[in-house]
Amino acid sequence: MTSGTTASTAPLAPTKALHTGSGDPLLLLHGFMLSPHCWEQVAQRMAGQCEVFAPALTGHWGGPDFNGWYLDVNALADRVENQLDELGWRTCHIAGNSLGGWVGFELARRGRARTLTAIASAGGWQTPSVLQIRVGAKFLSLVPVIEIGKHLPDAVVFSPPVRQAVALLLSKNAAAAPRRGIEAAITAALHCKAMLPMLAGGLRGPGLADLADVKTPVRLLMCEQDRIIPTRLYQKRFLQELPDTADRILVHDVGHVPMLEAPDRIATLIAEHVYASRTRLRAV
């Protein structure tokens, strides 16, 4: 499917969670201002070997609401942990993209992760730091665009130029990102109540704790053409601090949300990590 020519296969509606498949429990966590829709293709591929659960994060499109002016990773992890308890999952395999990777590290710290696949993970900065301020400013610059978009007709919001611009922001190869996924990303951004509270909470709260203490088997996937949090700047701390046993993989020719443009590769990389934990083998 291509972002420019393929029509959406179904009307877009908010999704509280994707829940499909059977087998080992696998939690999929989406990024900031996105929704579970970004995991649809990967979830479909993983459902044959895992019970897949991909919830909408608090304050995001389809997710639970919240009170107050601030929202942080701990609050997001609290809600996800409650959902795991409701499912009866004491532990599970976790794959998280961007903000979802950060939440995944927090859940791993709490002892809820059997394995963690962190994809273009956020949180790899000190607090306070120039990197933290830069990424916050980048998202803050989107606020007027989002506010204007809320008042525009769908014909403009989902027009080919807008879809192309969003696809290029999230992907390296815009033509490989499905139209449904791009339209879901646009809709999720327009309905993200957590945008300003998360930015405020990110400035107030700490970054990731010492990564050297992570006991969970970690597979770090770094996206070569990441335009949102470039790998060479924002993955440096992960490379330096994660235990030597952690996998460090540079995924070539993909952008910040590689599940959209390369679902086969991402599903395979997650599945390898899950399989290695089952057999107690180290993945290469």
Automatic annotation (TrEMBL):
Gene3D superfamilies on file: alpha/beta hydrolase
SUPFAM superfamilies given in the database record: alpha/beta-Hydrolases (SSF53474)
Hydrolase as UniProt keyword: yes
Domain AB hydrolase-1: 26-267
UniProt-listed InterPro entries: AB_hydrolase_1, AB_hydrolase_fold
Highest taxon of the lineage: Bacteria
Keywords: Hydrolase
Recorded GO MF terms: hydrolase activity
Protein name as annotated: Alpha/beta hydrolase
Record organism: Nocardia acididurans
